Amino acid sequence: MNTILLVDDDEYVINGLLRHIPWEDMGVRIVGTAKDGSEGLRKFRELRPDFVITDIYMPVMDGFQFTEEIHSLDPDVPVVILSGFDDFANARKAVTTGVQHFLLKPPSIAEIEFVVREVVRQLNESRERDELLASYVQQQDVVRRSMKDAFFRDLLYTRYRQEELPRQRIAFMGLPERPTVQVLTLSLVRSDSPSGQDEREWQLLRFGTGNIIRETLAGLPRADLPLFAEVLEYSDQRFVVVFLGGTAPADEVHDAVMQLSRAMLDNILQYMRLSTLAGLGTVAQGYERLIDSYLESRAALETAEMNEWNRIYVYAPQSEPERKKSVSLDAVRGVHDAFLQRRWLQALELWKQLGAELAGGSVPLPVMKGVCAGVASALWTAVQSAGLQPEPASEAGLDDLLLHLHRCGSARQLLDWMDNELVPPLIHQVREEMTDRKSHALIDRVIHEYIEKCYQENISLEQIASNLHVNRNYLSHLFKRITGEPFVTYFNKFRIRKAQELIRTGKYMVYEISEMVGFQNATYFSQVFKSITGYSPSEYKR
Question: Can you give the pTM of this predicted structure?
Answer without folding.
Answer: 0.47
